[in-house]
Prior knowledge:
Elements: H1 4-25, H2 28-32, H3 41-45, H4 69-85, E1 90-91, H5 92-99, H6 106-115, E2 119-122, E3 129-132
Amino acid sequence: xxxxxxxxxxxxxxxxxxxxxxxxxxxxxxxxxxxxxxxxxxxxxxxxxxxxxxxxxxxxxxxxxxxxxxxxxxxxxxxxxxxxxxxxxxxxxxxxxxxxxxxxxxxxxxxxxxxxxxxxxxxxxxxxxxxxx
Length: 133
């Protein structure tokens, strides 16, 4: 008479084997489909479509591309204009979300704004509020 433990082991082994067989029988396109369903055959045969993402909303990780002083100046102008609209000022997180910037893009621009006296800050760490001069 089999014990509970041996029955569970047998069921688990059967299940694992069935999963491995299903994966081995699937096409590569089915395995990488984002929603878990097989993609239509016509779409699978077509050339991949390159989607252009806006630079500001890039989900890329790693280093940023090198920015010129003009690029930094343009972003700083956008930040100053945004902060002028809000008389109480904005935190860095709010600025980043409003302008759709990456978190690592912001520190250099804010530092430039503070050193050029176009921005001023009050508070510390995450409670820092930036306002226009």
